[in-house]
Design goal:
- This protein has a single domain, classed as Ribonuclease Inhibitor (Leucine-rich repeat, LRR (right-handed beta-alpha superhelix), Alpha-Beta Horseshoe), CATH 3.80.10.
- It contains three helices and 16 strands.
- The longest helix has 21 residues.
Length: 288
């Protein structure tokens, strides 16, 4: 009888422990979330402020974390690196600071990383190639600086790369062209460097010479209509078998800028000449 009582007590104790584990919750910004059952957390435009609490690292089953358009500030908590199932991280439009370090580069399952419009600074880490599953890397409108690391060329799953409106400097490694979309493939992946919808590095201090895949495609306007037509020759710099209409112009007054009387190709049909991909300011900065 005594043995039966002991066994019964042990069973009740074990059951109690299991129930306690299954019912564990984490409180974030005044709300409790189940550790076991929280796979997505979307708190877009929720008026959140101050630092991201370290307790967020306890939600180890999170696959998507969306905190965009709040007033979050400070550095990212180190506990964020515990979210090893995270596939999508969106921190767009906050006031977050600090450098991009192992807190982010340890999240090796990430497909989508959006840090746009914050105050992150410093150089990109050389171990950024740990993020080998990235499809989209959006770092625009921050204060990142230094060289674009060559390790970014290893992110062969990338289709979207936005680095504009930062302070990157120096030359771009020509092997970045390894990321180019291969149009000969039946299911092409890669970055279309000819389109700002997929790639943008404007408003940095980057120096020429630029990699071949980033140069605009020129054509000979043999029929004088200001547009490329199939019978006209062109330079297929991205090897997609098509002419991609970057806005080239004839600098008839030799001032290095487009002026209203000079012809150009209006690639985005906005009725204005929008300038070269990198801009003359970048070149002047490099020559000083």
């Amino acid at each position: 009888m005594k043995n039966i009582v002991i066994v019964l007590c042990l069973c009740l104790f074990w059951s109690s422990c299991e129930d306690s584990s299954e019912g564990k919750t984490v409180e974030l910004w005044g709300t409790s979330y189940s550790v076991d059952n929280t796979f997505e957390l979307d708190l877009t435009s929720n008026g959140l402020s101050e630092q991201i609490p370290s307790e967020i690292g306890e939600l180890i089953n999170l696959e998507k974390l969306d905190l965009k358009s709040n007033s979050l500030s400070g550095n990212l908590p180190s506990s964020l690196s515990s979210l090893q199932n995270l596939v999508e991280l969106n921190l767009f439009n906050n006031q977050l600071t600090g450098e991009l370090d192992s807190v982010i580069t340890s999240l090796t399952q990430l497909n989508y990383l959006t840090l746009e419009r914050n105050m992150f600074s410093g150089s990109l880490p050389e171990d950024i190639n740990n993020l080998s599953n990235l499809i989209s890397l959006d770092l625009r409108d921050n204060d990142f600086s230094g060289l674009i690391p060559t390790q970014i060329n290893d992110l062969l799953m990338l289709e979207f790369l936005y680095l504009h409106d930062n302070n990157f400097s120096g030359q771009i490694d020509p092997n970045i062209c390894n990321l180019s979309k291969d149009y000969s493939d039946s299911t092409p992946i890669g970055v279309d460097f000819t389109s700002v919808e997929y790639f943008n590095i404007n408003n940095n201090q980057l120096c020429p010479p630029y990699p071949e895949c980033l140069e605009k495609e020129e054509f000979i306007d043999s029929n004088g209509n200001g547009l490329w037509t199939p019978e006209e020759s062109y330079t297929d710099s991205n090897e997609d078998g098509l002419w991609t209409p970057e806005e080239s112009y004839i600098d008839s007054n030799g001032n290095g800028l487009w002026t209203p009387e000079e012809p150009y190709t209006d690639r985005n049909n906005d009725g204005e000449y929008d300038g070269d991909s990198f801009g003359i300011q970048d070149i002047l900065e490099c020559e000083e």
